[in-house]
Amino acid sequence: ALMLENPVTEITIAMEVNYFQLNRAEYFIPVAIKIPGNELALARRGGASRTLIDFIGEVKDDFGNTIQNLRDKLDIKLDDATAAQLATRPIQYETGFTLLPGKYVLKFLIRDSLTGRMGTYQAAFTVPNLMREVTKLPTSSVVLSSQRVPLGDAIYSVQQKIAAEAANPLVYDGQKLIPSVTRVFSKSRELYVFLQAYERGATTTQPLVAF
After folding, report:
1. Could you count the other beta carbons within 10 Å of the beta carbon of residue 127?
2. Residue range 47-81, pLDDT digits in tens
3. CB 87 within 8 A of CB 42
4. How does DSSP assign 154-173, residue by residue?
5. What is the pLDDT of residues 79-127, one digit of tens each?
6. Of 167, 193, 171, the residue nearest 180 (C-alpha)
7. CB–CB of 191/144 below 8 Å?
8. Residue 27 backbone class (left: φ over 0; alpha: ψ -120 to 50; beta: rest)
């Protein structure tokens, strides 16, 4: 009993789905979900010292078959330091799926267990089969970002399973690249552009130039 037919918009949700090739068949699909920090500020004004946000996700294929399910919780302390952060930045939840090429629909339901407020989001996306790309250089999706944060930053993400992080190309040197879901950038912060390119059948690596 995951999804309601009519979207619920008490909580504003923005979502970004990317894809990176893992091997000849499988792709890692990182998902970034952003909700406004003032959602948690509501709970704090009610006197709460912490709140739990439930994330319930479902990936279905083109035929309506459920391919993957996800249930997770974001447990956030509502102390003074966190409250100051919530006033200036949103909460960003990160997760990921391993999928085969194809067309999918991703549905998410988010619920603040303290206030009872909910939001739902649905997005269709396609995982291309890059093994069939013969005329152009096969590339992943392009991720735009303005920040890298230490793994486990509670405002941004749940501590994911080690295996998932190991496969996540957005994680490097103990830092996670945070996709800019809402595409808002500032001249005062660096802009990161990240993608992967995949060579086909070459026995030697060819130099690549991006511009």
Report:
1. 20
2. 767 778 899 999 999 999 999 999 988 887 777 77
3. no
4. TTT-----HHHHHH-TTEET
5. 777 666 666 667 888 888 999 999 999 999 999 888 888 999 999 999 9
6. 193
7. yes
8. beta
49: number of Cβ within 10 Å: 9
Please name the residue ranges forming H helices in the chain: 38-45, 80-86, 162-167
Residue of 169, 125, 128, 176 lying closest to 150 (CA atoms): 176
Say whether 58 sits in a helix, a strand or coil. strand
Q: pTM for this structure? A: 0.83
Is-contact 179 16, C-beta < 8 A? yes
| 47, two tokens | 């006197």
With tokens 């309506």, the residue in question is 64
For the chain, the helix, strand and coil percentages under 3-state DSSP, each to the nearest 5: 10, 45, 45
Q: Which two tokens stand for residue 185?
A: 């950038």
